[in-house]
Amino acid sequence: MRPLTETETKTFFEKLAKYIGRNITHLIDRGDETFCFRLHRDRVYYVSEDVMKRATNVGRDQLISIGVCFGKFTKTGKFRLHVTCLDYIAQYAKHKVWIKPNGEMPFLYGNHIVKAHIGRVTEDTPEHQGVIVYSMTDVPLGFGVTARSTSDTRKLQPTAIVVFHQADIGEYLRQEDTLF
Amino acid sequence: MDVSEVLAAHKQKFKSVTVEGKLIPVDYDLGLIAAYDQNPVDEIELKDNAQLLLNEIFQLPTVSDDNGIMAMLPTPTTQLPREKPLPKPKPETRWEKFAKAKGIVKRKKERMVFDDNSGEYKPRWGYKGINDDGTKDWIIEVPQGSNPMEDQYEARREAKRERVDRNEKRQQRNLEEAVVAAKMDQRAIGRGQRPNMDNARAMKRKELENQILISKAATASAGKFDKGLKDDLKARGVRRQFAPNVVADMSNEKSESMSILNKIVGKNGEDLVNVRKVEARHKKAQM
């Protein structure tokens, strides 16, 4: 467990900013408690200072997980967000997509979202923008990246992919052992 | 006839040239036509000081020529500060270091030396000097066991060229080492001493070793499948250093991540997406 280096912080924030933009500030500088990002076995954890200090007593080999896992660094140095961070990024999301009940199942099985399943979209969402996927009852289901901007979507056929799947809460079952 | 009265009357017309005694005597540097008065400043005294200085000048030995009578000024005694800064000490060359260790002292040699052949004094080297290296010989004996067809003049020239080249290489090496030493040993230079060359040599050696290692690894497999030699140079890895996990004040970490965030997202709150670009693309798509 160690703090992130400058380059690591940069790649991490760049990915996170695609979903919540400047709202990362609210994660770094919270009113209630000091939270920090820590790297452990290539995974980035969002931990309160208190928990982090306690975790220093645990050996590196014994420590399995601390706080909330936000994602991991790939071996090529890119950063990949995990669905475990959904609770935080759903709070501060800038662009959202709501899907109809008949589209929930395919998305939760790891498929992309087609136009027919879209219920609502935040206005003026640009292309390749990170979006949070909600059910029509406002339950966050996961996140993805838009394939087209909102205006372009109108011209598309109902079977065309509109949001690329990035992570969904079905992964809690499918990738149980590698997620945290 | 008594003229003392007339003289006295004439003298009365002028102001007195005598000045009352000063508390601290005035220093003169007549070479620079200057007087230094240590007493507290007083306007009237300033005139007196000028008088004192002139009195001193008038006591100097004089010469007279067509231009009139002139006083002979002595050499100035005041030390003026030098105009230019002191030259920086030069780093030792390898030879200087060796000579110091061996106790070899440079001796001054006369420029002219006696030439036995011509029976007169000639410069030690240079134009019409005695150091012609035998190149002015009109005949050279072929040394024992050497190729008789070889041009002995050419061989001499070649030998000399080699000597010069080697010396130039050494000069170059001294310069390179001096640059490194000057960079490393600023403290000694600040004290006006010669920089220490020992570390410079070690540093240059390390630099060379690094270059050798780099060139060695420049193979198709980036050195992965190369067979190493015994006792060969080994690359020393870079030690990574990370920030400490727990510090007393966490606000520093916070501010650092904030500054990184500001760099990424931009100061005025605009996001990663280039709105202008998106708009342009959108317009293009509509057309």
From TrEMBL, chain A:
MF terms (GO), sorted A to Z: RNA binding
Residues spanning the signal sequence: none
Subunit structure, interactors included: Interacts with pre-ribosome complex.
Cross-referenced CDD domains: Nip7_N_euk, PUA_Nip7-like
PUA domain location: 95-170
Alphabetized InterPro entries for the sequence: NIP7_N, Nip7_N_euk, PUA, PUA-like_sf, PUA_sf, Ribosomal_synth_fac_NIP7, UPF0113_PUA
GO cellular component: nucleolus
Protein's UniProt name: 60S ribosome subunit biogenesis protein NIP7
GO biological process terms on file: ribosome assembly
Keywords, in A-Z order: Nucleus, Ribosome biogenesis, RNA-binding
Compartments it resides in: Nucleus, Nucleolus
Family: Belongs to the NIP7 family.
Job description of the protein: Required for proper 27S pre-rRNA processing and 60S ribosome subunit assembly.
TrEMBL record, chain B:
Basic and acidic residues composition-biased segments: 153-172
GO cellular component terms given for this protein: nucleolus; preribosome, large subunit precursor
Keywords: Nucleus, Ribosome biogenesis
Main location: nucleus
Spans through the membrane: none
Gene Ontology biological process terms in this record: endonucleolytic cleavage in ITS1 to separate SSU-rRNA from 5.8S rRNA and LSU-rRNA from tricistronic rRNA transcript (SSU-rRNA, 5.8S rRNA, LSU-rRNA); ribosomal large subunit biogenesis
UniProt entry tagged with the keyword Transmembrane helix: no
UniProt xrefs under InterPro entries: Ribosom_reg (IPR007023)
Residue ranges, annotated region (Disordered): 146-172
Location(s) in or outside the cell: Nucleus
Superkingdom field: Eukaryota
Family indicated by similarity: Belongs to the RRS1 family.
Function: Involved in ribosomal large subunit assembly.
Annotated protein name in UniProt: Ribosome biogenesis regulatory protein
Organism: Lunasporangiospora selenospora
